[in-house]
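Hi Q.,

Before the meeting this afternoon, I wanted you to have the zinc ion prediction in hand. No need to reply - just skim if you have a minute. The sequence and ligand are here:
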Amino acid sequence: MDFSIKTFDAKTTIAQLKTGCIAVGVFENRKLSQAAQALDCKGDITAAMKSGDISGKPGSTLLMRGIQGIAAERILLVGLGKEESIAGKDFSSAVQAIARMFSSLGANDAVVALPFDDVKERDLSWAIRSTVLAARENLYRFDDMKSKKEPAPTGVRKVAFAVPAAAASAARIAAAQSAALANGIDLTKNLGNLPPNVCTPTYLANTAKKLAKEFELGVEILDRKQLQALKMGSFLSVTNGSDEPPKFIVLKHMGGKAKDAPVVLVGKGITFDSGGISLKPGAGMDEMKYDMCGAASVLGTFRAIAEMKLKLNVIGVIPTCENMPSGRATKPGDIVTSMSGQTIEVLNTDAEGRLILCDALTYVERFKPAAVVDIATLTGACITALGHHNSGLFTRHDDAHDALADQLLAAGKTANDTAWRMPIEDSYQEQLKSNFADIANIGGPPAGSITAACFLERFTKKYTWAHLDIAGTAWKSGTAKGATGRPVPLLTTFLINRSQLASK
Ligand code: BES
Ligand code: MN
Ligand code: ZN
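Predicted structure with the ligand bound:
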């Protein structure tokens, strides 16, 4: 799908825009938006409103053809709710409805002429991003593995945003950035949805190499020998039961000033989590192919920021392997030595995410990061705590970490990809005591997502760090089973905001 900008002014009015379809807003109080008024030359739209054919309720639609006095072949009226101030969620309902209509329309191109600047507490960039993401979400299919592909989508292929000339350059940047973000989201979804016999650690490493080549990123793939030399005993213990070789991916997008400390993203890349010797129950185990969604979100975010040519130094680190049972697999009770030197008693081999992440978190110290954010489908307990609405956000509680947490929470709100902050406190750390090693890898049933974060916290003392538990948000189950692409919108928005801070 192609997105562009069309400007209008006193000379070139909206009524003169030649297009297959033009989408304009109407309100619940039966008033027309400015753009709708401009198209209502002969009163056809007013008549439709009066007749009750469209209510103006958020997301309601009415398609009209053959309207006199305008150049467009069709008008799509879409409800925006309250006129006094358009709520963000009402605008989102409207653009989702537009996206659905566009995909089944007999037109090839269309114009969206909504009041992008009038959404409460949002700006034009936000409104354009919502529209682009809704259109791309509606188009997304995953049929790579089906022998008979679904027919190529018909409907609108080219969407232009009609904005006043003064807003053109901001709109152009927003449209380009949103398309890049959508490309990143799609990559993350594809990697998540691929089956675990295809999307192996080697596949993720090859994907990183391909990205690096296409966008001129730095890339390094470490193999088992190199991980042994680095003494990543904790990460390697998780790989013992698997025949697939582990990989450790390092991606670099150095778009900022050479001396600027990088932001580091660390993604959990378990391409299949059987639980290991602490085997998971059979029902729904297929969904543990999604246990690499943290890694996929790092790759998708790199896809997005690289296409945007974001002016910021960002490093992505992905420890990736399978967690499988076998005669060589790590056993409950085994004690392993992490790269940090801390010894870990593995009381449950199904708490493997923290075992691969802790060595990656030690590894990234070498980058002297400005901030480190890890992203992981870490605990079922996080789903119990927050459901599928919010990702769990964990940091220490001091000024530097509160500031980082606030940036991530704000980015999530802007991107409609929210997180909720959870505590890290010494009282929870107590639950990780081991009789035989420095630390145990589980802390018992209470507060499972918090004790998992507390485990990671012990490996992050040398920098400012945040942890995102995306167990509840990275994919959907049931008939809608599929990756969501979250938290790529949150992460990308966070990085865009950081780059604007850095350039000030
Ligand atoms: N990958 C899982 C977490 C998970 C489970 C995410 C279900 C999404 C849905 C993780 O490796 C895991 O198995 N965690 C255990 C930890 C427990 C053994 C302390 C869990 O959550 O049950
Ligand atoms: Mn597990
Ligand atoms: Zn896991």
